């Protein structure tokens, strides 16, 4: 099931995406009553996807990122794979949706793309045992952990490098019926392939990450866990179109602009 969050005529709602580009008339949204965390009902209202504006599929209270979870990415930045997961936060104000612009921050001269599989939490959870991890996940979406690399290198904390406004594109929707263990993940910039990997290359699995994170904190419905990026990260410039595609989910596309 693909669950999208959208805006139409100033109203915001969730809907189930049905069909695809090959479907007669194109994909449609079957609008749901309420929010997708827990039980919900279909309203019976169906809207062509082409008539709505897709929004970030979730409004997280927090985004927990995991660094250096692909060995080749750690190596390309000159790092070893850490003994334990390296966790960091991105604020809710960093989130944007499909088609929204990534705004380059004035304090950085080297902003990079990082294509990632994002886990969307479906229920409040704390100290989750490994065998229960699947029970707390709503689904998965595409993410771009946009990073001010020069700032990351010179500042010990990653708050500014990873948390600036528009640094967390998410979308286009949440896929709930998916085995995330070995999915293809790709990033292109202006149609040119930059990153290509598989989630099966992650050093630590999604189960490992959720167990580790919830040892320390409560995750709330809608929260997001970023699972790390494969090798091939690189710079973004004004005018670029960056796209993250994940097998079984879809493609998240954003343009890059200059602030002001």
UniProtKB/TrEMBL annotation:
- Report domain Rv2993c-like N-terminal positions: 1-57
User: Which one Pfam family would you cite for this protein?
Assistant: FAA_hydrolase
What Gene Ontology molecular-function terms does this entry list?
hydrolase activity
Q: The Fumarylacetoacetase-like C-terminal domain covers which part of the protein?
A: 62-256
- Is the Nucleotide-binding keyword given for this protein? no
Q: Is the keyword Phosphoprotein assigned to this protein? A: no
Q: Which InterPro entries match?
A: Fumarylacetoacetase-like_C, Fumarylacetoacetase_C_sf, Rv2993c-like_N
Keywords associated with the record: Hydrolase, Metal-binding
This protein's source sits in the domain of life called Bacteria
What name does this protein carry? Fumarylacetoacetate hydrolase family protein
